[in-house]
Design goal:
α5 (129-145) packs parallel to α8 (208-222) and α9 runs antiparallel to α10. α1 (19-29) links the parallel β1 and β2 (34-41). This protein has helices at 19-29, 48-58, 73-83, 103-111, 129-145, 162-170, 178-185, 208-222, 225-250, 262-295, 311-318, and strands at 5-12, 34-41, 62-67, 88-91, 116-121, 154-161, 189-194, 302-305. The N and C termini lie close together (10 Å). By secondary structure, it is an alpha/beta fold. The chain contains 11 helices and 8 strands.
Length: 319
């Protein structure tokens, strides 16, 4: 295809001030491309949906989706995949920390035959200490416990060929983790480095608690190693207690007139109890995931569309 339709999917949560900015950047960069932009409003409480609607009335290549409530960034990406019409789909955040200028390189690699192009954030002094520490912790924890390694610094700023998108559409998991799912698919992939842009307005949506939650979702979605870890720790404590029991049987109990080391014993009991509770928590996470998936609820719900009703048909004719 000489001028294929390219879909740009942009999740947005309370990004009222950035919606128009990111689209203007895209217009400048993709002025010679046939492209559509799909904004996914992930339950914003500000004027994000209004901004998207206003832009969609002005520009015929914009479509907008508004969730009935906040379903999360990963679900917003899935909604974008489900509604994209292009021969490839590019996903990026609305806050401009994913610089649109790198999209041209992604498209070039795609035209050369690459099916997946993933951006990798480079270390920079502009990144906050909190961001650097939590990011390193996230990838190290995931790659230690998960069976699907993720390149450190990988972001949800990527390009997927249409056939990869079709596979993503068929995924029915309720707890989505695209940074692990995309590498797991195994399509021809290339990585490109990028320097993170500066957020112009608003605040980051990924707090430490959300990063930890995302990390747990990734680990438990692709690996049962935590369950094996529970087993090995149990073996360790069984062996240790057995050796101590043998030691006590052969030691003359009459030689001890007072009880010594009671503090160490209490500390050990408390520590072992904490480990047991942690392992029960790991089991609970896996059982909880099975329970959530068994309900078979939708991954997201669309409250309303933010574009004219015939917009999709118009884009199909152009594409």
């Amino acid at each position: 295809m000489s001028n294929p339709l390219i879909s740009i999917v942009i999740p947005a949560l309370n990004e009222e001030a950035n919606v128009e900015r990111v689209y203007e950047r895209l217009r400048q960069i993709l002025s010679h491309e046939n492209f559509e932009v799909i904004f996914v409003d992930d339950g914003s409480t500000d004027g994000t949906s209004t901004k998207i609607s206003d832009l969609a009335r002005k520009f015929p290549n914009i479509r907008g989706i508004s969730f009935s409530r906040n379903f999360g960034h990963q679900a917003a990406l899935k909604a974008g995949f489900d509604h994209a019409l292009g021969e490839c789909v590019i996903t990026l955040d609305c806050d401009l920390e994913h610089p649109p200028e790198y999209i041209s390189k992604m498209i070039q690699l795609w035209r050369e035959g690459t099916e997946v192009v993933i951006s990798v954030r480079q270390e920079s002094s502009q990144l906050s200490s909190f961001k650097r520490v939590t990011s390193k912790f996230f990838y190290r924890l995931n790659n230690t416990l998960s069976e699907v390694p993720i390149k450190s610094g990988s972001a949800d700023f990527r390009l997927l060929d249409k056939k990869v998108v079709e596979v993503c559409k068929a995924i029915t998991e309720n707890e989505l983790f695209w940074r692990g799912l995309i590498p797991w698919l195994g399509f021809k992939t290339q990585f490109i480095p990028y320097d993170q842009g500066m957020r112009v307005s608003g605040a980051t949506k990924y707090s430490l608690s959300k990063m930890l939650k995302l990390s747990l979702a990734g680990i438990t979605s692709f690996s049962v190693r935590p369950l094996f870890l529970s087993f090995y720790i149990g073996i360790f404590f069984l062996g240790s207690s057995s050796f101590y029991l043998i030691y006590r049987l052969f030691k003359d109990p009459q030689s001890e007139k007072t009880i010594s080391g009671i503090g160490s014993v209490i500390a050990a009991v408390v520590w072992v109890s904490g480990v047991q509770m942690m392992m029960l928590g790991i089991l609970g996470i896996y059982l909880g995931k099975l329970w959530v998936q068994s309900r078979n609820r939708p991954q997201y719900l669309i409250g309303r569309t933010l574009h004219p009703k015939d917009r999709e048909n118009q884009l199909k004719k152009v594409g």
